[in-house]
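Supplementary Text 2. Reproducibility record for the structural model of the 206-residue chain.

All settings were left at their defaults, and a single model was retained for analysis rather than an ensemble. We include the record here because the model underlies the residue-level annotations in Supplementary Table 4.
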Amino acid sequence: MILTYIYTGELDLTDDLDEDILGLLVATDELLLEELFNYVQDYLIRERSIWIHENLVQVLHTVFKLVRCEKLRDYCFELICLDPKPFITSKEFLSLDKDILYDLLERSDLQIEEIDAWDYLIKWGIKQTPSLKSKNGDIIKWNNKNYEELKELKKTLNEFIPLIRFTKIPPADYFDKVRPYKMIIPYNINDEIEEFYYKDYTINPI
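Retained model, structure tokens:
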């Protein structure tokens, strides 16, 4: 495809596979073919948006660390932020690169309930923690040994915890879904959460 473009100045991607076009984008970035790179990136967004929507994890893993792919990367994030539930509930979400997840949770336009963000962060963290991979997310069913393993989960999620806006979580959800994981939350954040629920929430309920 690159040779065709170099020799003819034209490139028709109509019949090419989506994965091949994505690979072409990476190749043109590596070869510094700026004009062709811009054309392929715009073509993917304009003509292959359905495929991108259905393969967000694959696309993000491919382009996330390519500096010049910022336009496609932002496009993917915007799709997720508008309707994040299908993305975070997909099987592929559990294999998401940690840097991508961090950038996603850091965004202010992510349209998600905070308790859902917490639930799926826990599921992702368990999947990323080797000693917990065979466990489910229901801590109530874990035995005493698992509480030792929570130390590993804390290491996995340490940088993500500050991104969760715990004060946006209703008390009932906090009690049932967050409190059991109290030991993985840094002490200073735990203190702020408890102060909010014991003081501020009773005065100014969510």
